[in-house]
Design a protein that fits this description.
By secondary structure, the protein is α+β, with helices and mostly antiparallel strands. The radius of gyration is 38 Å and the shape is elongated. The termini are far apart.
């Protein structure tokens, strides 16, 4: 929401600058995003260079047919010669003048200029040059009542600071200048001007009423709770006055004509969107509000043809649709230069329906942004009152008596009880009844004091936001100042926080990876469906159970991820494109698997790792080590052993990994993830020249396999006995299978098995290999003898021969 400072101060002026007002609003819950300057810069007295001038004469330039040499009077005898290229400059006009030294919008500093032999001592300005309008065809001509020589700022807002506010979804009242002014009034206590929508225009009692020439019908009041229309005759379409153009431009709206500008002005000031129809372009005597028919079409004001389903709500005449309820009007009934009769609509629409329709149509407007937050039906009539006054004043219109008002049963006023004891217990501080009542009254609430409590009536503009006692307490707290509340412990027993078992282990895993030099990343849970296709997964793969978003922000974010890999690969490409190639990344995040349209998806917590380029940099004693299968396996080993998980690797891995350089991870006997080097074709599809080494674990499976308790034993008093064996086995037998067979045969005294060598050659024969193992034997209560170890070695030899047809090299 863009709030021009001058406009805001017209309704509530605490006497502070933009920075301080932004701070006050942020502290009370309406966050300031930034402050921007529109129009003439305000630095170093720059506004004093912009003056009102009187054109005494305007003669054709002797060397240029399209230029005029003007004599412009400022204060007293101060007369300047100014060369002007505008076709509408003429003697006797009152104009806006920028003098040499003025800094123009955009930062250009004005100086004296020699224009074909004539020195121009300033510049006569147009609307566009001041950013107070869009007209570039000629200069601004002011009323004769403006005094020559006076500063322009005394008559026009030629430059203003704009507060850009982030408005919470539950606060549609702050989507208006007056709503923000009401907030400032509550925070500072500065005077608040009367509600601009409270006073109505006077109309003649005789003559035809609005209902005589137009009727309105609404099929479903749940979709359109209120629809009001006022009819105006003798409308004179033309440009808006400069003050109105300047306000719209500063607030981010483009001036069009006086009637359309009035609708935008009302929306910006009160928060109630309005729409004007050319009454003579409507077919039939009735406007009918109904659901759209499937496939129904309408060309909207932006010139685009829209196609609707039956969720959309349309305003229709006898021919068909003339507007999309709460979003945008139709081009066919648009107000134009020839319009003389106007039907002014002020309606209320169902917020969720507006949000759904605007998302489906990819058409989000200033009106829909307000209606989707839910406006109260009372606001529609207040918007009509303000619009009517402006139509009479600015368009010379005559309003027909009466207002067409078709509405369902409106929501009753909300009345709540605020217990002072409850207020103190929730805030941890005592706020006196008078202060609490004063805060609520400044916010527009009706308050009556009773014994130990406040009886509060919620104003219409906060009806859908403040619905319970806790909401009132929040209102008091934010205006009183949350920063003023003391820090206290919760007033209940056993209210001590802590981490669960799995949370502690998850943090241990993340800390370990950070300690190994990895950087944590956070990527979006929304991905493009194309990313899953790039992984080259076979049909029926678990990771193809993609959950598609019903109303995505874009095609690139239209699906929920089933793996962390696409996000990590995109992050890698983003860094490599910026010449950051040595990457060590990890992410802990959730993945989602669809269970069809009628069931909630499965949600899992995963941990992903990506290593690219140099995993270990070169030193003066060792060469650089590139990221590969074994680098990521080393991380896996250190991670799972730190978590005390019973794990093993198995041959395999997803289709997107390099064949022969991948493995499945088993934890506690269950599938827990995979690791390996990325398939070069997949890497290339993600824009990577070199395949990174990657790993992904299902943390829920891993954490479930962690030991609940730690067993400590004496490793010093009882020494270990080490023996090395070389097992000759068929080439197809995995080393892990050999290790598992040895462990099963040796018994509990075998504490560790390490593979330290692999041999292929003449001594073992074709199709065979020799796997060298180091065995560590240790008993808990004694030193094992050679005979005991030899016995276990014999059992190992027999088991290898029986199960694997293997033998030991002597």
């Amino acid at each position: 929401m863009r709030v021009p400072l001058a406009w805001l101060k017209e309704h509530c002026d605490p006497g502070s600058g933009a920075t301080e007002l932004g701070r006050l609003l942020s502290m009370s819950g309406t966050e300031l995003e930034r402050i921007t300057r529109v129009g003439v810069p305000s630095d170093d007295g720059n506004a004093s260079y912009f003056r009102i001038g009187k054109v005494l004469s305007a003669e054709r330039h002797p060397e240029a047919d399209r230029l005029s040499v003007c004599s412009v009077q400022l204060a007293g005898s101060d007369t300047r010669t100014i060369v002007c290229g505008a076709p509408n400059v003429a003697a006797g006009e009152t104009v806006l003048v920028a003098l040499p030294g003025a800094v123009m919008p955009g930062g250009t500093k004005l100086g004296r200029a020699d224009l074909r032999g004539v020195t121009s001592d300033g510049m006569i300005l147009s609307e566009a040059e001041l950013e107070i309008g869009t007209d570039t065809s000629g200069i601004v001509v002011l009323p004769d009542s403006y005094e020559a020589g006076e500063p322009a700022t005394g008559y026009l807002a030629i430059g203003d600071d704009v507060l850009e506010l982030e408005v919470n979804p539950n606060r549609p009242d702050c989507m208006s200048v007056y709503g923000v002014a009401r907030e400032l009034h509550a925070v500072t206590g500065a005077a608040l001007s009367p509600d601009p929508g409270a006073e109505d225009v006077e109309t003649a009692e005789d003559g035809p009423a609005a209902e005589d020439g137009l009727s309105v019908s609404v099929d479903d009041f749940s979709l359109c709770p209120r629809f009001t229309v006022r009819v105006f005759e003798d409308v004179k379409i033309g440009p808006s006055p400069l003050w109105l153009k300047a306000r719209l431009m500063t607030a981010g709206q483009r001036p069009i004509n006086n009637v359309v500008d009035i609708t935008n002005y009302v929306m910006l000031l009160l928060g109630q969107p309005m729409h004007a129809y050319d009454l003579d372009k409507l077919a039939g005597p009735e406007l009918h509000v109904r659901r759209a028919k499937e496939g129904e079409r309408l060309v909207t004001l932006d010139g685009e043809q829209r196609v609707f389903d039956d969720d959309a709500v349309l305003i229709c005449d006898a021919r068909g649709p003339v507007g999309i309820g709460g979003i945008m009007g139709g081009a066919e009934s648009e107000v134009s230069e020839g319009t003389t009769r106007v039907a002014m609509e002020g309606a209320t629409w169902n917020g969720p329906n507006i949000l759904k329709t605007s998302s489906k149509l990819s058409l989000r407007t200033e009106a829909s942004a307000r209606f989707e937050r839910r406006l109260h039906p009372e606001l529609a009539l207040r918007g009509q009152r303000l619009a009517a006054r402006l139509m009479v004043d600015l368009a010379g219109a005559r309003m027909q008596p009466g207002t067409i008002d078709v509405a369902g049963e409106g929501p009753p006023p909300t009345r709540l009880r605020l217990r002072l004891e409850r207020l103190e217990s929730m805030l941890g501080d005592r706020i006196e009844a008078d202060e609490g009542a004063s805060i609520l009254e400044r916010l527009g609430f009706g308050v009556e004091r009773s014994d130990g409590a406040l009886e509060v009536e919620v104003p219409y503009f906060r009806h859908y936001d403040v619905t319970r006692e806790a909401d009132l307490i929040e209102e008091v707290a934010r205006i009183h100042g949350v920063d003023k509340l003391p820090s206290t412990l919760p007033a209940r027993e056993r209210a001590v926080g802590g981490l669960t078992r799995d949370q502690k282990r998850r943090r241990l895993a993340q800390d370990l990876l950070r300690g190994r030099g990895l950087s944590e990343i956070v990527t979006n849970s929304f991905i493009s469906p194309r990313a899953i296709e790039q992984l080259r997964l076979p049909d029926g793969d678990e990771q193809r159970r993609v959950l598609h978003i019903g109303n995505p922000l874009s095609e690139e974010q239209s699906a929920m991820r089933t793996t962390l890999l696409p996000g990590m690969l995109d992050t890698a490409r983003h860094n490599i494109d910026r010449d950051i190639r040595d990457l060590r990344l990890f992410e802990a995040g959730r993945v989602f698997y669809s269970n069809g349209p009628d069931r909630l998806p499965d949600e899992q917590l995963h941990l992903g790792v990506l290593l690219a380029a140099a995993f270990q940099p070169a030193t003066w004693r060792s060469p650089e080590r590139q990221a590969d299968f074994y680098a990521v396996k080393a991380l896996l080993v250190s991670l799972l052993e730190a978590l005390r998980v019973d794990w093993r690797l198995a041959d395999g891995g997803p289709a997107f990994l390099h064949p022969g350089r991948a493995a499945e991870v088993l934890a506690g006997g269950h599938e827990a993830g995979w690791l390996g080097e990325l398939n070069p074709l997949v890497a290339s599809s993600f824009g990577l020249d070199e395949p990174p080494a990657v790993m992904e674990l299902d943390l829920e499976v891993v954490l479930a396999a962690t030991a609940d308790s730690v067993q400590y034993e004496d490793l010093i008093s009882v020494p270990a006995v080490f023996q090395d064996i070389a097992v000759i086995v068929d080439e197809a037998v995995e080393a892990q299978t050999v290790v598992d067979t040895v462990r099963a045969a040796a018994g509990p005294e075998l504490r560790d098995v390490t593979v330290f060598d692999l041999y292929r050659g003449e001594q073992v024969g074709d199709g065979r290999k020799s796997v060298a193992l180091r065995l560590e034997f240790r008993a808990a209560d004694r030193t094992l003898t050679d005979d005991e170890v030899s016995g276990r070695r014999e059992r190992i030899k027999e088991a290898l021969a029986r199960h694997l047809e293997a033998s030991l090299r002597e």
